[in-house]
Amino acid sequence: MGNAAFRLHCSILGPLEVRVDDYTAVIGAPKQRLLLAILLCHANAVIPSDQLIDALWGERPPRTARKNLQVYVSGLRKIFGDRLSFEGWGYRLFAGREELDLLRFVELARSGRAAVRAGDLAVAAELLGEAVRMWHDPPLAEFSHVPLVAGELARSTDLFLSVYEDWVELEIELSHHVEALASLDLLASRFPARERIAAARMTALYRCGRASEALSHFEGLRRHLAAEIGLDPSPVLRNLYQEILRGEGRRTADGAGHAGAGRPRPIQTLANQLPRDIADFVGREREVRRIVDEAAAVTLITGGPGIGKTALAVHVAHMLAPGFPDGALVVALRRHCGDTRGTVDLQRELLEGVGLNVAGIRDDDVLASVWRSWLANRKILLVLDDSPDESSVRMLLPGTTASKVLVTSRSRLSGLESVTRVGLEELSAAEGLEFMGRLIGHDRVFGDLPAVTAIFEQYGVSPLALRLLGGRLSGLRHVPLAHLAERLYRSENILDEFVAGETSLRDRFEECYNRPSWAHRPAFLALGALPGPPFGHDELVAALEGIVTSAERAIESLLEANILSVPQKAADEAEVVAHSMAYTMSPLAHRFATELRRHHGR
């Protein structure tokens, strides 16, 4: 056919079929049909010739395999023309959204979910319903034994099921539960472990006045899960079962459901899961006002260890939580040992926590899409705590601005786009005095003000350091503050003095700074050779030369990691020449760098 114009429609969401203009193309040779199925499953992507040969002939292809492949391609070109091309190492079959049902399905799903986010549920149900009706299970059954086809079919089936679940829940929400039951009956038996389908069927049955069948479905699911994987149904399904058992929710004579308290819902909200606010929270008025007043969807709070990032985020989250009725929670992006938690695992954990069965989704992009789809019509307040990098934040951000996200990180995450940045420094001296007063008593603090001031000047005014000192001193009321100041001054291992109960400043620093693979380690050790901060620019460059490739870049990296900071007075200057630039860092972090350097014999 060459480049002549013709209308093409290919179908793989069922039996393989190709229509050219108004005629069905005849593709009789089994291997040629398999080749076409592979190319359509991977439409618009190049499939290497070696992979095609392996798929067509297995581990022992004939010597003429490559020539035979070219013959099959030549035969397909009589149907597809220039749409089928050789790219140097493999073959590509071009198809548009209107020419391949799988691509049309994906486009309808995307448009339907966008309509959900826009609040147009009727349009969303129509678009998602059109996508659902394109599916004819099982797709490409004759090739399900071929790995190159089976892998794509598994991903497509996962996508179909998530789209179907979105659609059927919308249908029930729109009181079309009678119509939804026909497909629910079929898919609930075909995929018995899909809990969203089970919840939708139970809800539809109940609203049609068939409560006993809804309860029976739950019992069947419970037995199936116990036998197959040794688990109980999710809390959402158990709650739905109890609601139906108690007869909650209202129905009209024809079984149509009405909105009202107690109506069974297949998906739950997160509720308020914030940890308790800190009663002795002090200061940060400007930062709190900025986060609360600005309408930013994402706010990033950064600073070094112990500077109070999480405390500020939780404090503000409690203030904002009433405006987010669908829930508020803190998601820890690192484990207690400091290891990063996998973003995909977090998404899976969160979705399963609200009753979505995502065990069968193996594609990370699809899982991320399900997470964003679930968030789309909800007002959720998320605190993403201790983010290790920009990608971990991006993967968890909602696609709409109805929700709000507070992110805390030791790094400035400068590449993270469209966020409001709030950088935390140490408390002011006045805030430090107020904080210590709340911890050990104002009379005690102001009764020995020179000693407290000396501690601040020597070791900084970070919230964690003050809390650890205050925690110790609250149980040592007989110890004068001047005595403690003198003890700290004489201590050779000063970090060991900042400990209270199970919390230790040394442990926190070791978790942050003592990993052998830490990218900033050489530069951090070099800081330990310098006298205490502040540091001049030339002084830093001289200390870093020969240790890192570029001293200037290393300084920028230390600033990005919030190891170094620019004193506020210098940051506010309109013009600062290089020789007058100054940097500072936590005095206790500098002590730790000095210890590390001494330990490594440098």
From TrEMBL:
The keyword DNA-binding applies. Keywords: DNA-binding, Transcription, Transcription regulation. It comes from the Bacteria. InterPro entries: AfsR-DnrI-RedD_regulator, BTAD, NB-ARC, OmpR/PhoB-type_DNA-bd, P-loop_NTPase, Sig_transdc_resp-reg_C-effctor, TPR-like_helical_dom_sf, WH-like_DNA-bd_sf. SMART domains: BTAD, Trans_reg_C. Residues 1-95 bind DNA. Residues 1-95 form the OmpR/PhoB-type domain. This is BTAD domain-containing putative transcriptional regulator. It comes from Sphaerisporangium rhizosphaerae.
